[in-house]
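Weekly structure sync - notes
Attendees: PM, LS, DV (DV joined late)
Agenda: review two folding runs queued last week.

Item 1: First target. Sequence and structure tokens pasted below for the record.
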Amino acid sequence: MLEVVYFTSVVLCVLGSDAPCLNDGGTCRYDHLPCPGGYVSGLCSGASNRRCCQSSGSDAPCLNTGGTCQYDHLSCPGGYVSGLCSGASNRRCCQGDDSACLDEGGTCQDDSLSCSGEYVSGLCSGASNRRCCIEDSACRARDGTCQDDSLSCPGEYLSGLCSGASNRRCCIGADSGMFSNVKVYSRATWGARDPTSVSAISTPVDLFFIHHTTGSRCYDFSTCAAKVRNTQNYHMNTKGWSDIGYSFLVGEDGAVYEGRGWNNVGAHTSGYNSQSFAAAVMGNFMTTKPNTAALNAVKNLIQCGVNLGHITSTYRLYGHRDVSTSSCPGDALYNEIKTWPDYSTAAP
């Protein structure tokens, strides 16, 4: 008997692997179905609408910060943070761009949380209730800085604009650019020593003197601040004065550095300290005058003093040499200030 054996050909259909999705704790499904944590493409086999549904709970730490969990080879505007997303180690939390809030000195947070200043919309990434908390916003709106009012303020203090204790007030002028378009660095900013004593000056004054410090010139904050500190040490340690002598110092970075400021008698122009302020431009200006940035800073500083009521509107401007045998403020700088409209040829 002849036995005929039939072989049946079996064709197996092998789907692509869903392992990438499963490894992330997700489930592959068609994306018309609801998904609590959102769909991620490229992790599932099959049709393009068969995608990986992520679990919502595991990504909550990222979502709560206004971020989105995604693979870190993808572009992310605000940078990636690890440890906030479920799944593989390269699935990280992409933070939105909060730079607009950060630039205002604020913090992006859920607006149900307490904010000592005020919330501003439109500056934070994420949900609409994730807003920018800008503390001390009333003071910031005046270009001021909130600080303890026992600290020196080159401008003036205003109450009611800062959060916290009653002695935390808004200093208008400290590092704010409020001095008629000139930046003023406070004593705290450049690293001043405390004075051994102070004497209040009666204002407004009618005289303003220009000096130079001699020595090297400076063109950036770091170099200028170091020069101011060295000047203070020289005045206090070698000359035995209670503080740096000048009311203000000016660098060729275009900034003003607070010395004794608007409130205290200086030690800059013998015989006139109690009735004048003085600014010293840092450097030696016998042969060349300071750059335009420094000259404009001096002019704007004086105008600020007038605006704040510390200097009379009819003030008279002098060089140090006008009342001494010194060559200060240097030939080139002296010739420059003699062209300014408020320079006086009459004796003080």
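Item 2: Second target, run right after the first with the same settings.
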Amino acid sequence: MKTEEQTTEVIEVPTLQKRVKEMLDQGYRLVQIGCTNTGEAYEINYSFDKDYHFVNMRIVIAPGTELASISSSYPGAFIYENEIHDLYGITVTGMNIDFGGTLYTTSIAHPFGITIQKKDE
């Protein structure tokens, strides 16, 4: 069984909208958006597919960084973006459907968010 090569391109936040639009224009579909708390930052992976060829774009952001929605290019992205907001506390601006923090009901706000602890001086 042959395994298809998957590429991962690390991009900067300001180029996200442009790169996503390029993927749409080339006929790629959005497969998923996943977020991971790395301890000091958030790694967000956008996965696209065309004819069984996967392309991943990765951005790494610091806590407090706002992220622009890609729902103007991929309308279904709103569900991933609301999830990222509710579970990680990342502000996503311009979503086509914004649940306002109510997609998930959790006992604590942003359970997968980065906790910054201040050291006692």
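Discussion on item 2: The longest strand covers residues 29-37.
Action: LS to circulate a short write-up before next sync.
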